[in-house]
Amino acid sequence: MIVKTQAIVLRMIPFSETSRVVLWLTRDHGKIATIIKGAHRRRSPFVGQVDLFYTCELLVYLRLFRGLHVVKECSPLKPRTPLRSRWRATACASYFTELVARISPLYAPHPELFRLLDMALDYFADQSALELGLFWFELKLMKVMGLSPQLKECLVCHHPLQTDDRRQTTDDRREPALGAREASVFSCVRGGVLCKTCAPSAGKEALPITPDILGMLRFWQSSRSWRSAQSAACTPRQIRELERILGLFMQYHLEIGNPARATALSILRTRLVPTD
Ligand SMILES: [Zn+2]
Fold first, then answer.
1. How many CB atoms within 10 Å of residue 271?
2. How far apart are CA 202 and CA 194, in angstroms?
3. What predicted TM-score, i.e. pTM, was given to this entire model?
4. pLDDT number for residue 276
5. All domains of the chain, ordered by start, with CATH?
6. Ligand 1 centroid to residue 254 C-alpha, Å
7. Residue 245's Cα: distance from chain center in Å?
8. Which pLDDT tens digit goes with each residue over 116-144?
9. DSSP letter string over 73-115?
10. Residues with beta carbon < 5 A to ion ligand 1?
């Protein structure tokens, strides 16, 4: 059977002198591994048609050749040229595609995950607020995986939680939720926040969370556009806390160590020192 689908390049590996293996996240068939025969030949029709972070229109035989599907045709829809030269953006794109490659099972269509990755790569290619955008996309990734943290009420007593959210409308701030309690700790294991009264029942893994961080996470969780990440202004302390909470939460629920994340974040913070 031959199928046509949109697909994002997750990984590329040389296979023989002339062929290469490409791992894709497709919109309609989930993650698939393909071989592109003759990709390295000078006159190959695939030259310039496929590279890391591209979204392509893919025509592929869904039959296996040495465990791989064979690509018949491929044309780039979004080459995302800035990701070839902007190294901070490249680090974010590498981390995010690697993360998706690791958490996606083969042949499990997940159009929402496809849309999110496509949007994240567009974002990294074009925007400058990379760090906050990365956190925003991580939160959305947890959502499409069905693993959103509970941020509205205490996980134990179910009282609503207070936030220090300056983005709320004046009306919202005038009327705090009835019986709202102050947030105290974030539990990765339980998947959300506990109020001050219930915090002693949390395990040792629970991390302190302040109302401003809770407010930010809640605002991002309910927002549909990454513009809300760009509009945020975070202090270095807030960035450190967001990084820690989201990192540990993803590590626990996606069951993966995350060296690519640490690498991406350290590259983002690298400042080039002028030599002269
Ligand atoms: Zn409580």
1. 5
2. 8
3. 0.90
4. 56
5. 2-126 (2.40.50.140), 161-268 (no CATH)
6. 26
7. 15
8. 999 999 999 998 888 899 999 999 999 99
9. EEEEEE--GGGGT-HHHHHHHHHHHHHHHHHPPBT---HHHHH
10. 154, 156-157, 195, 198
